[in-house]
Amino acid sequence: MDGLALSKTGGKLITIEIDEDRYKTALQNFKKAGVEEFIDARLADAHQLVKELKGPFDFVFSDADRNGIHSISKRWTRNWSWAAAHGPQT
Q1: DSSP letters along 22-42, please?
Q2: Contact of 6 with 35, CB cutoff 8 Å
Q3: Is 65 helix (H, G, I), strand (E, B) or coil?
Q4: In the prediction, which pLDDT does 80 show?
Q5: How many CB atoms are closer than 10 A to CB 62?
Q6: What are the residue ranges in the chain where pLDDT is below 50?
Q7: How many angstroms separate the CA atoms of 20 and 18, rounded?
Q8: pLDDT digits (tens, 9 = 90+) for 21-30
């Protein structure tokens, strides 16, 4: 992630973490890196929260559910966008 690029383009990164300890660590790391103003970090179950997010998004990455990425990518990405997944198949 490049905070400079986000600052130049008006971009924003949304991240969803279900584990509170990892969420807190991520917040600390974003602050240390000086990019916290460009990141909307949320503590939640992504399977529930993504239903509330409004797209489209330029890029979607899921590190939890490879099968679930299909419904997410179809709903929130543009035709030229990318969707990627890493994690267990469910």
Answers
A1: HHHHHHHHHHHHT-GGGEEEE
A2: yes
A3: coil
A4: 46
A5: 20
A6: 1, 80, 83, 90
A7: 6
A8: 999 999 999 9
Whether the CB-CB separation of 73 and 49 falls below 8 Å is answered with no
Stated as kind and residue range, the H or E segment containing 8 is helix 3-9
Residue identified by tokens 């969420």 is 23
| Rg of the chain over all Cα atoms, to the nearest angstrom | 13
Q: Which pLDDT belongs to residue 45?
A: 85
**Which residues, 6 or more positions from 8, have their beta carbon under 8 angstroms from its beta carbon?**
none
Q: Which two tokens stand for residue 84?
A: 């990627």
Output the pLDDT for position 28. Answer: 97
3-class SS of residue 1: coil
